[in-house]
């Protein structure tokens, strides 16, 4: 896909649980921002129900078709943990991770911002919203997510199950370089998270590449935290972070905690970026399918809506992206403790975007 | 070692950084509790300085000697991240993890309790201290800590570094069984943390064993959380936890976050238990060597002191353990925002123990 397509072709995968509910609101806001004819949308019926109906998670033809799009919007996939009809990991590994890996989405970008006035669990430690504003650059195509592992003597008292974390200089370098470039455009600070005192091989590689690439960016100050220590800093002092770079699993963990301290997982957007622009990038809320609240109209679509800003930015429309961000911020500032229906939030943000245009 | 030795032989490894400072206070409180002659102590000079002096981290004779003790008290080991004299992981893997693995310390027990009145980052969400009181049962001898991994073409642009998580039915079952037994003696709820939707092999094993063992404990209610979701619950609703069981790495991560939300890493004790009683168990604060504050007398020895309560419990002296716990709680309740010297805190808790006897 080109970096700034004239009339982008967008694949939409609403998915499971609350996925369809929040994607509907994201599309509503997107249309309010760019108009009804700026983009072409193709909907894909994939996820738990599709698998139950057809026995297929994602076939090769569909994958090949998705690979030709300019971007993908994804709601959420995954059955409830403990579901007896859908095997654990089937949809996550067969659909979500399959897309991230097959479409070489090397940078999983996850911004966290504490909007002024937003209820968060850290008050009164974190009083001033504007201070907490950082981005996690999570590696998206390697590590423990590579799917290398297996089980010997499965189901017996002598079972041995392994999982292999695979880390390449190529993969580590491109995500670290991206993070440095991002840090330069922000406040100029980059923190590496790993656990190199235990994971000495993978950690050694991450350290060496980080040190090497840092030489090209003298304007960026750097720091290092072990992942365990990082979970402490995320609670006691999240304002210290500007850009964080880390591997796939540590990035998964720290971004959920980051969401928790900045108002909740209902607000956290993400972009799975194919930095080479050879395949489409994919935009999705950090949250999952949340089967427990699906169908009730109480899911917060803000994360999905903010993901649209990341998509517009990626598609070369930073001004449209900024309009969505401003509308989200305005909506946040006006929130009370009253619960709003999913579509009310979408309506409110859509009309804020329209009003500001 | 026997389960309740008459005059226990205790190995003391003060270690690096703030290790010696906090261990001195722990021994002070221990002596105040059991008297000067109840235990025999042997000090071992191991850690960064010992390595720099001798080139040895832990030789076979010392390990064999340690293996004959009734218990080990450890301060902290590890040089500063980025140290140029001590290779990353040398002391962690060569000393701390070597002991945990060689002495088959399968259960790494880490209680978290929010004492009433203790300053914590979650106020006002968590207002009533007594509600947050849980124990993490972290597996101690497997997983990504097994040290299986390597690096191909190290230091070149084509490097591939791997880390292998090894999980056995044997290792997973004993720690899960321990956790169920602990849950029965507590509030009867056990939560499994893993990431079985991605780590399907290891996660599958953990799930199967958990389900199997749960049948023997109909009085225990169970739940499951993915590790990423658990970092959210730990911030927004830590009171929901009673006993948590998880693997080595997830346990490392969640216990640091747990410490952060219950008053800080300076308060978090741990026990590395050899449940078979074939080797000594090891008692240490969760915190590390904290080189940045070493030598300043500002380290909080409470975690090391509370670890002594875990040791006394393990050595068959639950009443002495309870005396230390009560003294720590009393000291906490009286804390103000004024900083106290490391030894002041030790003195205060020691005299509370003595006064209550
Ligand atoms: C659903 C799951 C496979 C996924 C992940 O682990 O990456 C999710 O937690 C996320 O963070 O996007
Ligand atoms: C120092 C390090 C090897 C250790 C670990 O990762 O287990 C520490 O973080 C801990 O939690 O005891």
TrEMBL record, chains A, B:
The lineage of its organism: Bacteria, Bacillati, Actinomycetota, Actinomycetes, Propionibacteriales. Residues 9-349 form the Isopropylmalate dehydrogenase-like domain. This is 3-isopropylmalate dehydrogenase. Its EC number is 1.1.1.85. Its cofactor is Mg(2+); Mn(2+). It holds the Pfam family Iso_dh. Gene3D superfamilies: Isopropylmalate Dehydrogenase (3.40.718.10). SUPFAM superfamilies: Isocitrate/Isopropylmalate dehydrogenase-like. One of its GO terms (molecular function) is 3-isopropylmalate dehydrogenase activity. Keywords: Manganese, Metal-binding, NAD, Oxidoreductase.
């Amino acid at each position: 896909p080109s970096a700034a397509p004239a009339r982008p072709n967008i694949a939409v995968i609403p998915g499971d649980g609350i996925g369809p509910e929040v994607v509907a609101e994201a599309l509503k806001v997107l249309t309010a921002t760019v108009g009804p004819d700026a983009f072409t949308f193709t909907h894909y019926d994939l996820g738990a129900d599709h698998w139950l109906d057809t026995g297929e998670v994602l076939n090769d033809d569909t994958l090949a078709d998705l690979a030709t799009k300019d971007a993908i919007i994804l709601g959420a996939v995954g059955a409830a943990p403990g579901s007896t009809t859908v095997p654990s990991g089937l949809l996550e590994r067969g659909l979500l991770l399959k897309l991230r890996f097959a479409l070489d989405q090397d940078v999983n970008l996850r911004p966290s911002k504490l909007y002024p006035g937003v209820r968060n669990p850290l008050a009164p430690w974190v009083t001033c919203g504007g201070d907490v504003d950082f981005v996690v650059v999570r590696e998206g195509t390697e590590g423990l997510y590579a799917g290398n592992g297996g089980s010997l003597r499965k189901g017996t008292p002598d079972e041995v199950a392994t999982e292999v974390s695979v880390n390449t200089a190529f993969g580590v370098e491109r995500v670290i370089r991206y993070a440095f470039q991002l840090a330069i455009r922000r406040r100029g600070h980059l923190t590496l998270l790993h656990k190199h005192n235990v994971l000495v091989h993978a950690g050694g590689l991450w350290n060496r590449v980080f040190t090497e690439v840092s030489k090209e960016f003298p304007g960026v100050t750097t720091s290092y935290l072990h992942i365990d220590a990082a979970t402490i800093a995320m609670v006691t002092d999240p304002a210290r972070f500007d850009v964080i770079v880390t591997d796939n699993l540590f990035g998964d963990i720290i971004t959920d905690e980051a969401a928790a301290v900045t108002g909740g997982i209902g607000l956290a957007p993400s972009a799975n970026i194919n930095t080479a622009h050879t395949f489409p990038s994919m935009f999705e809320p950090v949250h999952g399918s949340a089967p427990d609240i699906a169908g009730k109209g109480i899911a917060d679509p803000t994360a999905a809506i903010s993901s649209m800003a990341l998509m517009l930015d990626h598609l070369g429309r930073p001004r449209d992206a900024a309009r969505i961000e401003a509308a989200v911020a305005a909506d946040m500032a006006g929130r009370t403790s009253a619960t709003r229906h999913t579509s009310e939030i979408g309506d409110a943000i859509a009309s804020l975007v329209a009003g500001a245009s």
